[in-house]
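Holo prediction — pyridoxal-5'-phosphate.
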Amino acid sequence: MIKSWEYKAEYEHEKEEILAAVEEVLNSGCLILGSKVKKFEQDFADYCGTRYGVGVDNGTNAIFLALKALGIGENDEVITVSNTAVATVSAIVSAGAIPVFVDIEEDTFLMDTHKIERLITAQTKCILPVHLFGQCVDMDEVNRIAKQYRLRVIEDCAQSHGATYKNRKAGSMSDIAATSFYPTKILGTYGDGGMVLTNDEELYSKLTRLRFYGMDATGHALVHGYNCRLDEIHAAILLKKLRHIENYISQRRLLADHYNLLLKNTDLVLPVEKLDRKHAYYLYVVRHAKRDLVLSELKKKGIHLNIHYPRPIHMMDAYKNLHYKTGDLPVTERIANEIFSLPLYPSFSLEKLQVVTDSLQEIMTKIQ
Ligand SMILES: Cc1ncc(COP(=O)(O)O)c(C=O)c1O
């Protein structure tokens, strides 16, 4: 059986390092906000090319805190996409703000920056691009619009550690970036984790307070805050894994190259890597008009794949109150019926990849 993702092989490979990191924390006498979190914040911020990092408990809260730190809340509109993890939208709504969805590009599945300006109103406060599947949004255009209309920008870089846009890393091109270290992510821990990144000292101070009950170092709550701390164990694991991040990305890109080569003569529409960007291939998302049939045929062969994402968020019950209707985001809605993700993670073997591509070729011929 082949699954979309599994971590056992990678764990076997890294076991000694991971367990040693956990043990070091357990023996240290400090489990919360100690030296591992501090070091990981600095190292990951350095890796992304920002001055500051604030470790938090997950990527959803990273977005939530970014919005809070920028003072975005009640009645403020945040422009983002509907083709993303629910988390992006959930965080906006939790902050009290209103998500406004822009359609996506047909080839990259990323925010269509040409459609942003028509959505800007007096209530718009922020653009929240999602560097989805491992590729960055056209950030020059996002930042140009933000400057012109005096909007803030929050990057959601949960899926794009190490991806670049014009040689700048994901997470370094906005007021605040939010990321996740959920296990499947390019840099993922064995549990939950996240970070907010910024170059702004004042925002950094705000974020450190907001993540820890609004307190300063003396325990005085200066503002209403939350409990969104990253813990020492996950920071220690992430510090170890951060050393391997470029290997993870190279391996992902190698697997993507193999898929590109082995599937180029099929009816599948393959991912596009833009010339000014480096794709980190968090996901390898392909497109086919008979997607459901392809997936059920693959399942018969023991290949169980996922769809990211089968239902756009503006069509979900939880967000009915935003009053979107079918047809409002035509590209988003169309691709949701056609996309699916092929297995791609560093420990996925080329032998298994070959099984997937052979099966796809066979199915494509059969259903033509
Ligand atoms: C694009 C995107 N944003 C936000 C998140 C939220 O991260 P977390 O699951 O750590 O809350 C995720 C991951 O699930 C994601 O893929």
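READOUT: The pocket of pyridoxal-5'-phosphate is lined by residues 58-60, 84-85, 87-88, 130, 156, 158-159, 180, 182, 192, 194 (CB under 6 Å).
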